[in-house]
């Protein structure tokens, strides 16, 4: 007599085809969502790079202005910046008056007005970043407010703005506002 050992199998559990299709669809939706984040992060990285470049250049230009003496010889006072551009530093014969580019006030903060297509002569210039392979051009403008009398300057307030002029998209201008006094 031979005994046959058979294992009785209960109802086997597993995934049905419908469950597999549903899991695959959920996985695909998640992958598509993640894939859409890649171009968005690349765009944000590009914009942050342009904003950082603009801010660094604006700070460098403002540092050059602040390094100039308050009462330099010559009229109007000016200097030649690192890019070889003539930069005027206000007019001591017109104290307590904004000289240079128009300024607008937004939320109690002064900003250079970039609504005009060109800036005021000798109070603006364009700059192309030599390290930028795309050749982005920046528009730099400033205004100066002098405190003093017609012969002696006690302080100067510099409001410097920079805006990307070429490239893809719209970028908010960067504004730096500072004062130097004796």
Q: What would you note in describing this structure?
A:
The chain is an alpha+beta fold. The protein has one domain (18-181). Helices cover 27% and strands 30% of the residues. Strands 3, 6, 7, 8 and 9 form a 5-stranded antiparallel sheet that branches. A two-stranded antiparallel sheet has the order 1-2. A hairpin with a 2-residue loop joins β4 and β5. The longest helix has 50 residues, at 17-66. The chain is rod-shaped, with a radius of gyration of 31 Å. The N and C termini lie far apart (117 Å).
Keywords:
30% strand, alpha+beta, two-stranded antiparallel ribbon
Radius of gyration: 31 Å
How many distinct helices? 1
SSE order in H/E notation? HEEEEEEEEE
Number of domains: 1
Main beta sheet: strand number and arrangement?
A: 5 strands, antiparallel
* Portion of residues within helices: 25-40%
Q: Tell the overall outline.
A: rod-shaped
End-to-end distance: 117 Å
Mean pLDDT: 85
| Beta-strand residue percentage | 25-35%
Query: Oligomeric status of the shown chains?
Result: single chain
Low-confidence stretches: none
Fold topology:
Elements: H1 17-66, E1 78-80, E2 86-88, E3 98-100, E4 103-106, E5 109-112, E6 124-128, E7 137-148, E8 153-164, E9 174-181
In short:
This protein is of the alpha+beta class. It has 1 helix and 9 strands; from the N terminus they run αβββββββββ.
